[in-house]
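Revision sheet: structure tokens.
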Amino acid sequence: MDYENAVKRILRQLGVGRSYQGYEYVIYGILLVLQDKKRLEFVTKSLYPDIASKYHTSWKCVERNIRTVIDIAWREGDPGLILEICGGKSFKKPRNAQFFELMYEYMKRIYGETAVTRQDDYDYTDECLDNCICLETGRPCHRLMRLKQQIEELKQLRENDEP
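Predicted:
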């Protein structure tokens, strides 16, 4: 699974574009959290410094620019998507660490429990995205993709069980 592109799609739906400095920081940060959830426990001591190191800046700049991205997302983003990211609960603008945790949980819900730790298990292609479009929003629907995959898995199990 190409989590980077998935996160980019989500950010675009939230109204955040590449013009914001924090855009790349958020993407990289979410990818780091997906690799190791423990980074959520040490955002200022682990996550920010790792992002800052990659982009040759200070952890304070990283923190500020991520805060800006979250502010833009909560002001201009798709309210339905924000509600979905928050697990169906109304949620005021989160702090940075909360945002990373919400995104981690959202990605886990979309791609399944094991998707976060075993990335190669769920290999959605652009073709799958084209076939899994929400009729209401016209956007790619990750729930439909997951459902489609589960149906295919059940078909294979049924074929293997038949004599």
